[in-house]
Amino acid sequence: MSGISEFTPRQLAAIETRGGALLVSAAAGSGKTRVLVERLLRYVSGREDSCDVTDFLIITYTRAAASELRSRILDELSEKLALEPDNRHLRRQAALVYEASIGTIHGFCTDILRENAHLAGLTPDFRVADESEAAIMKDKVLEDLLDRRYETVAETPGFALLVDTMSAGRDDKRLKEIVLETYAKLQSHAAPQKWAEEQLEALDTGALRDASETVWGRFLMDDARKKALYWRGVMRRLRSETTAHPDFEKAYGDSIGATLDGLELFASALSRTWDEARGCANVDFPRAKNVKGYEDLKEIRTKCRDALKKLAAVFECASEGLLEDMAAVRPAVTELLKLVLEFDKAYAEAKKKRGLVDFSDLEHLAARVLTDFETGAPTETALAVSRRYREIMVDEYQDVSRVQELIFNAVSRGGENIFMVGDVKQSIYRFRLADPTIFLAKYKSYKDAEEAEPGEGRRVLLSTNFRSRAGVLEAVNHVFKNVMSEDFGEMAYTEREFLYPGRTDGESPEPAVELDVLDMRGIETEEDEESPEKTAVEADFIAARIAEMLQSGTPVPDGKGGTRPVACGDFAILLRSVKDKAALYEKALADRDIPAALPGGEGFFASLEVSVTLSLLGVIDNPMQDIPLIAVLRSPVYGFTPDELAVIRAADKSADFYGALVKAAETNDKCRAFLDALASFRLIAPDMPADRFIWHVFNKTDMLAVMGALRGGGGRRSNLMRLVELAVRCEAGGYKGLFGFMTLVRKLMEKGEEPFGSSETPSGDAVKIMSIHKSKGLEFPVVFLADTTKRFNKKDAAAPLLIHAALGVGAKRTDLMRRIEYPTLARMAVARKLNQEMLSEELRVLYVAMTRAREKLVVVSTFADADKELLKLSKDAVAPVAPQVLENAAGMASLVLLPALTRPEAECLRLAPVPLSTDCGAPWDIRKIVITEAPAARRRKALPAEPHIAARAEDVAALRRNLDYQYPYIKAAEIPSKLTATGLKGRFADFEAAEEAAQLHEAARHRPPAERPAFITRRTALTPSERGTALHLAMQFIDYDKCGDLESVREELRRLREKSYLSAKQADAVDPAKLLAFFDSPLGKRVMGADRLYREFKFSLLVRADAYFADGGDDELLFQGVVDCCFEEGGALHVIDFKTDHVTPETVAEKTRLYAPQLTAYARAMERIVGLPVRSRLIYFFALDAVAEVE
């Protein structure tokens, strides 16, 4: 098996090349594990300078992979020993395999830290906390930290600003999420504090004059230039095409020429400064003359116009405003990074007290032990470790992080004796901080092995695939050579990266690839491509297709040179995400009696056994919960039927379900038995740790036996044991007892965190349903790639705060006056970069999915209206597809269909002319299928008809009585529970203005308002409503005693502006002469000399409804209002309402009558509150400088 003749020349190069760092780019199915094992064996088998297997450090991605690799090395050594039984060296290697350093990066770091605990500040017996335990600690540490910060918020204005700008809603949940997410992102850096300092330095844009001088501006401009050049090429081709159509050229030629001139200017300006580019961003599309037809050519121009309009929006703001935005967000971002670093320190102290480290600590602490961060050089410890190993071998190198790379460099003699193997096209773990650019940088910079000088890094490409049929490989090549490029996918897919067939068992005449487009126009459904109906239709189709292949006995290789009929275990259904969908596929298969397995797909908390147990524990903790209680009663543990539950509900319809259960237990033994058991559980729960109590519940309810008897009982029992394990961790983490355990579980469920990773390996004769990520490293004879119309997840680029390793922090700026958030220059750039990386990762996920198939790949895409989507795609289909087109792809279906539409056999899908590809490989089986009936409707038809039962006359009469019932208090239901004084006159604008003014003042008391950006307001003057609000604010906060003359009034307005009671525009909008006119008036002088004065007096009173509504009866409602001014004079009250309405001497009487109900309401309220009679109700109209009395 390991003979030289069994390896390809490329594999041999990877096995035998020495003399420097070696990067092996091993495509899917190319035998990379065999190569790694053989390379090791060549070292230790005695053919070369003999050494031991313990002289090598071998790093794999998972513990399962490490165990498998160790077994393969031992198997190979055993085979060699069978040929050379007297070889003592080989016997020694076989014995040493179990001592060899073969494991994960975390295992290696753990060993380093235990050996050098004193250097890392740890005790040698430290324990590694799992993710759920770490999540508990983080939550508690952050809660305590924020509590301390809130206590000193008055002395830390930066923290107050952070809370104001990055919190949302009624609590600080969003701020907590931002802190934890930022902390997690910082863990991808070897020196988080240094990175944070670099970001703060980058945010200091004070010395800059143009946005292009920033890393964000330059990134956006470079990106925009690529798009501008692309559309310039499109428009040039359009102009060339017009020469064949003189009438179209006559109508559109000048317009297209003007657009091309504008594109030239824009593209050129993008190479210079931001403001120059901004001046050229609005490319002109002059109106063309009318000409009939040529819709395809017109549409190209329309697409270009729309794309450039979207691009111009990026350059809407000038550099001055953008740089000012960056300066404005810097204090909040500074405080955030300080808070994150403070959290890091507090979290580290909490772990140290408990003797814990988390997985991130393992890498960071090991990196500090092995690397001098000041110089970047390996430490003496690293040099000592590196001397132990002849070579460092790293599997799945495409998934390493920056910190891991630092560790590898430290122990590999400066990167000289390291063997790295992986496939960057299968790097799909960026969300776990994997950085494929590390692999890509070496892939691009290293020379081919045969060209490299001694000591230089070299690369070997393994492109021969021994897994899949040639037809599958050709399909993969066809798709990826047309969609993967430097700009879309982070690398080009050329002939060097092609997959070449290595199998020699012959090719089946059946197509290796099937593409099924399902059109749901034949049934009523939602437009959403991710609706449950779509999933059900697709699941039903796939189940039917599998049943068809099983029934026809589709042949697959039997591994002995022949074939056999396909079996259930040969199929795999791969989904981008199994959440809420896998069960529908399982049901569709079950309807056809096809067994299915969901390895790790259901989720721990969502599994039946865990869900039932948690419901029972929740009811023990608090029985007044209807849904958990009903779930427990209905579960296999207690077995109440729906009819029995209905009887319980009927026992007491007015109580909650627990109350009804107590009532039913008076006559029902089954209910009484349940309540007795519940009472016994509740009695002892406070006195037992959570884990022991759960064991007690298991014993008393036979939970393990009941769940073990269900399908998949072994896995269910295992999950219940894991629940006990989680309870043990909970107790250790400080969440004591049942209540603490349930609190922890709820937090984990709210965050969507799973306490255990799935390690279940799919097995058995059942169809596998799993996520694409779970399928990595596996292979199946027949693969169905399903749910391809699922939209790409762009939530990461929409998070409140964005972070990128190279571009740094992308924050929003918050307008504190209006609570409006808008993007900054940095945020636009980081969001764009994250979106690009997300699309590249999704492309690699598709590559992983397509390369899992050995014999047949079936791609299924389901659309609510397939023709609509196919028409749109047909207009963009060309080989290769431009990155600027692909960046608008909604999901995987687009990435497959765009190149598929260029294939000759895709005629049934093309709805517009498409240039055909010539080199497509083996033909696909391409179909478009119209779905005419939903699965649920078909199942209903298959059910036997229910017998007709005649209704009894008394039941009909009772039903009619119930349906004819009239609610006797319908008038009361129409009366509002709350009434405002201004509502009495039929409008709420003044009340809302007053409320808004108060809120604005409260905000202004603590901080100066941020300027609203010009692109939001696009005006300079205040509206009449805003001017009225400004005048009311002035009258509310101005000091009456300091308004004796015009200059004093002006001084008061300046004071209100400086104290942020009024904004600059509001202060300018208030006419000081109007204020002085009031104070100089007889009414103003009475106010100034009043015995007592009430200003902006808010009140809330309970009043009888019949005082304001004819049918109000004796009900009470809440009456609220704000009295502008009320003064006491001679033992009586006088109520004043200030009005800024436009009024004339002719309309003043009408306006007074309009406001009369409002003033009457104010008068009644003040009489009740103060206890004095109201002698006059007055309205002061600022427009006339006059007062009117309400009769």
Can you describe this structure?
The protein is α/β, with parallel strands linked by helices and 1191 residues long. It has six domains: 12-123 and 389-462, 3-Layer(aba) Sandwich (Rossmann fold); 128-188 and 322-354, Enzyme I, Chain A, domain 2 (Orthogonal Bundle); 211-316; 501-524 and 545-560 and 771-798 and 830-933, Rossmann fold (3-Layer(aba) Sandwich); 604-751, PCRA, domain 4 (Orthogonal Bundle), CATH 1.10.486.10; 978-1190, Lambda Exonuclease, Chain A. The protein contains 47 helices and 30 strands. The protein has a seven-stranded parallel β-sheet with strand order 3-2-6-7-1-9-8, with helices on both faces. The chain is globular.
Comma- or semicolon-separated keywords:
1191 residues, alpha/beta, Rossmann fold, Enzyme I, Chain A, domain 2, 7-stranded parallel beta sheet, 51% helix, hydrolase, DNA binding, AddA
Question: What is this entry, summarized?
Answer:
The protein has 1191 residues and is α/β, with parallel strands linked by helices.
**Rg estimate, integer Å:** 37 Å
Q: How much of the sequence is in beta strands?
A: 5-15%
* Helicity level: 40-55%
Let me know the average pLDDT.
87
Task: Provide the CATH top-level class of the largest domain.
Answer: Alpha Beta
Secondary structure tally: strands: 30
Total helix count?
47
Domain UvrD-like helicase ATP-binding: 5-469
Catalytic activity: Couples ATP hydrolysis with the unwinding of duplex DNA by translocating in the 3'-5' direction; ATP + H2O = ADP + phosphate + H(+)
Protein name: DNA 3'-5' helicase
GO cellular component, one term: DNA helicase complex
